[in-house]
Amino acid sequence: MKKYLLPLVLLLVALAQCSFGQGSVEIIVQDPATGYTKPVSSANPLPVDAEVNIGSITVDVFPVFADGAGSPATATVDASNRAIVNIGSETIGMITAIDAVPTANYMDVENVSSATPSIIAVMSGRKSVSLFNQSTTETVWVSLDNDAASATIGIGIPLWPYGSLSVRLDPSLNVGLITSDTAKVTVYQDN
Questions:
Q1: Average pLDDT, integer, range 87-96
Q2: Which residues contact 95 (CB under 8 A, 6 or more apart)?
Q3: Could you tell me which CATH number the domain at 105-190 has?
Q4: What is the pTM assigned to this prediction?
Q5: Which residues touch 33 (CB under 8 Å, ≥6 apart)?
Q6: Domain segments of the chain: what residues?
């Protein structure tokens, strides 16, 4: 056992030395004035054999492709040198996306019962509708169609207690709501 003690101690010392963090590493460069090597510091910086000058560029106008064939046109710029571009004839769907941004909204709380389906007043130009069931126990059944009174219990889209439903919906379609007891539903429409 004694003959294994010394190699075991040396092995443990070697492992201990390897497991601790390494010392800091310094970059050593040759001092051009003296020829001696010195560590890099603020007094002895790393020599750089380059020079960089950063200038400025001013762009007043630049070419903008006016059509699908790539015919360039010169853009008009505003006071901040941003291009003013007429997008009246674009084909990538940007105008549709811009038109789809809501410009107005309508929010109301509908009292829903089992007697007659509640019909949500359609906001002119409505793009989407969101419904939020405020009941803790009642499921509200939703219909999205042209028939004003088509909401039926057990048929349609279930709006679970504290549930929500958001859909893009054509303004010509009605939203009908009905439940087996009574519930309140928050209705949000954007235009």
A1: 60
A2: 87, 88
A3: 2.60.120.10
A4: 0.47
A5: none
A6: 63-99, 105-190
